[in-house]
Here is the input.
Amino acid sequence: MSGIDPREEGARTMAAIAAGDRSALISLMERHARGLRSIAARYLGSEEEAEEIVQDVFLKAWRNAARYDARKAAVSTWLYRIAINLCIDRRRSLALRQFVGLDAAGGEDTLPDISPGAEALMDGRSRLVLTRRALLRLPARQRMAVLLASVAELSTREIAEVLETSEGSVEQLLVRARRRLREELDDTMGDWESTGGSR
Amino acid sequence: MTGEDDSPGLDDRALDNLIRDAAASDVDEAATRRAVMARIAAAERGTDWFAWLPALDARTAPAAFVLMLLLAGGGGYALPDLLGDVEALQFLDLASGGVGPGGFGALDLGSGSG
Here is the structure.
């Protein structure tokens, strides 16, 4: 790393991409694709949709690299903002597809069809499944805020930039999201363990 | 990674770890990179005819969408009949806000809020 400012390094990468350097785009993907996919998948509740979102983010980054301004945001913040906008668009288009009859109505969030009581579930895996379900039940902005904080490890200020809101609002979203997750996980994990699912 | 028997009463750190673990995806990242590079190459070769769609702006995309719906309705077709399934979905993605702020995405068709 040799003390290079990440923002400066990001600016250099984006300048290279703007100049048509594909290897710079590949290194950008290597650095950020995993985090972006994790967030999109848990926000949309679908790995397939998340894959499309991630591809679209990097296509947009490729096409719009020249517009990136390092003074305004770190590259990661810029990419997450693109991803969040695409995720919101995707949720809307899913609703629109149902409206015009292209898709069967599937509810706002598609929950994985996994019963917490199934014997096949291992303890650790069950926790992850329950956590995913609990995340999907959060209101959209709370879900996004907590994913950006916990998964992308963005600061409150950076999350505020991505969500285009104030730091105070982000703090409120995070407090509410964590409280709700904690309550739900305590309930569901307690129920599951009391029915014999625990180690 | 979570490593703790943190139920009930998860602390913030345990909760963050749990969320991080739950969010992890086991996917082929190299395949994603290949797909992106292939899409870029297709757009540059001009074989991705939907590459022109980003040229639509927030005003023209909804108008184009309504026009397509009228054409479909007038001819008794479903949108996929006119465009093909994949293209219809792409078109709807675009019309529902993919072109930037505004677009058809200005219509909130049920996205959640918190």
Observations:
- DSSP finds eight helices and no strands in chain A.
- The radius of gyration of chain A is 19 Å.
- Confidence is low (pLDDT under 50) at residues 105-114, 118-122 of chain A.
